[in-house]
Amino acid sequence: MQQEVTILNKLGLHARPASEFVRCAQTFRAEVRILRNNEVFSARSILDVLSANLDCGATMILEADGADAETALRKLSEMMHEFVRQEQEEGIT
To answer: Which of 3, 44, 62, 84 is most buried (most C-beta within 10 Å)?
Structure first.
């Protein structure tokens, strides 16, 4: 399964949101990958997620294989909206 996702928060997937994203990806049995610029990154690796350069406005394809792949894709894509909400609460505009 695949889903295109756009990074919505101003700071992108920098250290803290990237860490939350990776922790979430690790909770699923499905193997989750990030496809970006003809490269493949593991959604379970903080180094891979940071290396994907996911700045605000960037798009990526989330790809998941496994029993809970659909749930993993839904939850990880929903996190993009949660990161925007967190920035708004912190006064980042």
So the answer is: 62
What's the CATH number where 79 sits? Answer: 3.30.1340.10
Residue 15 is which amino acid?
A
**Residue 8 near residue 85 (C-beta atoms within 8 A):** no
CA terminus-to-terminus distance, the chain: 33
> In this predicted structure, what is the pLDDT of residue 8?
92
Annotated catalytic residue: which of 2, 4, 6, 14? Answer: 14
How far is residue 62's CA from residue 74's CA, in Å, rounded to a whole number?
Answer: 10
How far from the centroid of its chain's Cα atoms is residue 54's Cα? 8
Amino acid at 37: N
Q: Number of folded domains in the chain?
A: 1
Q: Which domain holds residue 24?
A: 2-89
Residue 4 contacts residue 59 (beta carbons within 8 Å) = yes
Active site residue 14: yes
